Amino acid sequence: MEGPSSTGVSNRKLAMWTFIGSECMLFGTLIATYLIYRGRNVVGPYPDELLNIPFITVTTFVLLMSSLMMVLALAAIERNDLKKTKIWLFMTALFGLIFLGGQYYEFNHFVHEGLPLSRNLFSSTFFVLTGTHGGHVAGGVIWLGTLFVRATQGKLDATHAETVEIAGLYWHFVDVIWIVLFTLIYLLV
Amino acid sequence: MSGKSGATAGHSTEPHVSNRFYVAIAVILAVFTALEVMVFYVEALAPFLFAILMVLMVVKFALVVMFFMHLKFDRPLLTGVFAGGLFMAIFVIVALMAVFGKFG
Amino acid sequence: MTASEHALDNGDAGVHEGLYAGGIWSWVTTVDHKRIGILYFLTSLVFLLVAGVEGQLLRLQLARPENRFLDPDLYNQLFTMHGTTMVFFAGMPLIVAFFNFVVPLQIGARDVAFPRLNALSYWLFLFAGLFLYSSVPLRAMPDGGWFAYMPLTSSEYSPGLGMDFYVLSLLLAGIGTIAGGVNFFVTILNMRAPGMRFMRLPLFTWMALIVSVLILLAFPPFTVGLVFMMFDRSFGTHFFDAAAGADPVLWQHLFWVFGHPEVYILILPAFGVVSDVIPAFSRKSLFGYPVVVFSGILIAFLGFGVWVHHMFSVGLGPVVNAVFGGATMLIAIPTGIKIFNWIATMWGGQIRFNTPMLFAIGLVGSFTIGGLSGVMHASPPADLQQTDTYFVVAHFHYVLIGGTVFGLFSGLYYWFPKATGRMLSEALGKAHFWLTFIAFNVTFFPMHFSGLLGMPRRTFTYAEGLGLDVFNLISTIGAFMFTFAFIPLFLNLWRAWRKGEPAGANPWDAPTLEWTVSSPPPHYNFAVIPTVDRRDPLWHPHIEVGLGWAGEVEPGGVSPRVQPKEPPEPVHMPDPSYWPLVMGIGMLVMTAGALGSLGVVLLGLAVTMLGLFGWAFEPSESGAH
Q1: Which of C413, C399, C400 is nearest to C488 (CA)?
Q2: Among all residues of chain C, which has the CA nearest to that of B96?
């Protein structure tokens, strides 16, 4: 129901922000667990033996730039520039996919280096935390991909700007979480 | 409140921000990320590593939330909803770490 | 058009028309908040009865010392199922049933913000409950207690599928609950009728708003804890494995970071019901409305900083215990404020002792007892004596039955006429109240004594000659009385449904907006969205509904005749949809697959995605997502 809004914000947008507020608690708990357990590993491999900072810096950069493309996609659809909208939506989803590819490579590499999920406390906390984030990225890629397909079918125009905006809010939030994880997991080993 | 009952679309209030501005924000984000990694590798900065990284992280976080997610231009209600969740999350993280003796 | 051209609705709609018309399919695909509320109510009533029978079996086992009616293993399973069911599949959904039926009517809305999401929440609740109970025929009921402490619940000490049923069903239910939290938060913020400012909201709606916030903030940590437990049990991770350097106490923290706000999720709606019922039956506006609102907010806020009081005996040290003990005692202040405001509301009022009022007053008394014993074990030294004894069992049954259940019974008698258009019998209602009130006290008051004598909870029997025999026998007799006390309730519901007197729009002369529409309300709720200019609008002559009907209200009188029988303009309501059900089934299949079959999980994922896309692209005026 898009009835009149008491607050001046549409229901959908308010709901997305509410969901994001709730998601803060989800990631907050995961991060708290990671931080509490940091340094309590009793068997290797240990984080500093495995974490590859240059590699993850590249994928971090890719995810940050995907946020720029997302916001350009929104600006384009608000101008009713559907061609640009299509391009930027595609690029956002593509960069998201590249990030996921990087994560797949990283996970795979860790497993080959002797760190399967069940190896130790580091593997448990690391894989579940970054995996939950990756799951959110994957959901976002599917969402943006769907919007891209709708755009190519000509079913997305300036009247759907808010639909793109809300997908964007989700996407930026996932990016923001990565900003935190990048610092806490990789740089403050 | 019903004072703004005429507002139907919801997001028409924000001033138009140019693409150049968004690119500028992205450049800052990229530069700060590069700075973070550099700080990580400079041994002389090790004593300040935590402080520097936290400041850079918070600035990046704030830039994305304020400008890419438009919170700076949007209704205060949305900032409140997000800040409420964020505040409680930080509270839980800090409280749990304190209970587990992470602050000495 | 003038007012006289519209027949005014006196609220005589029959029970079998309108809201209740249509076959099974119309209920399966419904997105109407009233129907979803009724589905929630009936389903959670069944779970309440099942969990009640489980409690009854526990009491039978404890009737006398050294009893062998249940073996220890089955006893463990039954108290786990009793607690889990009561909290997640009876208490919370019963509350959500009232949120669904009442909140949109109280704020002058035609539905919730996301009707299809609302339907999905219901299906996830139902499926999660059925999934949990599918452990019964498989003889694999969870047996680790409703708070499932690690490492007892690890795969090492709880092999078999029991705790997996617990983890997975609560994950599934939690998704629906969080969706409901978003839905009601947005509904109450965004769908209020013109003029329905925050400080004019009925108290029940206020508490629904606060509870939505609590759900949104408390369920994610629980979800994370459940995911950790699932990974530890199924994938060999080490989140709670002391041998790997982890701390099993982390589970207790994650559980109670959620679990304590959960207590307020269960009690605040009951406070909300009582804060609406007591003014209605005292013919006097709520005393100190803003104070009652803010004390509710304060209770919720403080509720996040007290979780360690469930863990004093863990040994976290005097500083941690003192901080959390002090914070816990603070909660007594806003709670006490509410109690005094209810009493002050009754003071000097024209009190009518109808059944809703009796249960409301019963809550004020019983909850005070439960609250006081709560303050006792807020003090860590006292708690060390009381924790894990029947004293704690007595405490939380006083707040959960004396508080939540009495509040919900009050709400049931209060809003039943609105939901069905029929009146419940006062005689049967009073019989139900007195039987319940006496039986409840007979059951749980003696537990204070058996607890202080040292009787541990969750132990399937006790030795003779410890002074526990009499108290346990009395508790068991009380439990039987409690079960029989449900008979007048069901007789009453059945009788009223068949041949109850027509209720009219406002049988109680109550002051809030839900009493302006017919009973049961039309599917669009309000033919004309009312404009509200004050709190308790029906007790004042100035309710404005536009188009000239304001003139129909007699000055100074209480008039229900403010809604025209037919909407003057066509009302667009969301279409029924089966996609929420498809999505719910998909998620159920995923959950079942998580017991051990990746293929089934993928199948469930495919169905879920099908449901999601079908939902997103369903041609409808209602908002996507």
Answers
A1: C413
A2: C253
